[in-house]
Amino acid sequence: MNEFLIAIHRDLKSKDAKPSPEQMQEAIKPFQDWIGSIAAQNKLVAPPKRWDLGGRVVTSATVTDGPYAEIKESIGGLVLIRAESYDDAVEIAKGCPVLKWGATVEVRMALTAG
Predict the structure, then answer these.
(1) How far is Cα 77 from Cα 54, in angstroms, rounded to an integer?
(2) Domain with 77 in it: what CATH number?
């Protein structure tokens, strides 16, 4: 089994960037069910985490505040999973219920150090 990062990207600039309380409530159960199904298959490495909208951007010479909404998308959540292959990880990611609200989901495989 390989480990994969599922990064959920949220749109921060469109008029639909901030869901209503009703939309948030509607999204909770399907998201919990999706995470629960991954955990039930023993494929959940780390539960999802939410991140603030700020942060810092580090380059070799500077540290600045950001990223900012001008970049259009920000990470809305991270989930670590186990899967046999990229294709299997992508199939799991396709089940992410926030896709129907315009989010995008990025899948990356963890590489061993060295």
Answers:
(1) 14
(2) 3.30.70.1060
Whole-angstrom Cα distance, residue 46 to residue 80? 5
Q: How far is CA 59 from CA 7, 43, 51, 64, 68, in A?
A: 22, 34, 21, 9, 16
Q: Which residues contact 33 (CB under 8 A, 6 or more apart)?
A: 97
Domain total for the chain? 1
Model pTM? 0.74
Residues shown for the chain: 114
Q: What's the pLDDT tens digit per position in 31-89?
A: 899 999 999 999 999 877 776 666 777 777 777 776 655 555 567 788 999 999 999 99
Could you tell me which of 101, 1, 80, 87 has the C-alpha nearest to residue 35? Answer: 80
User: Is 114 among the domain residues?
Assistant: no
Domain span including residue 73: 2-109
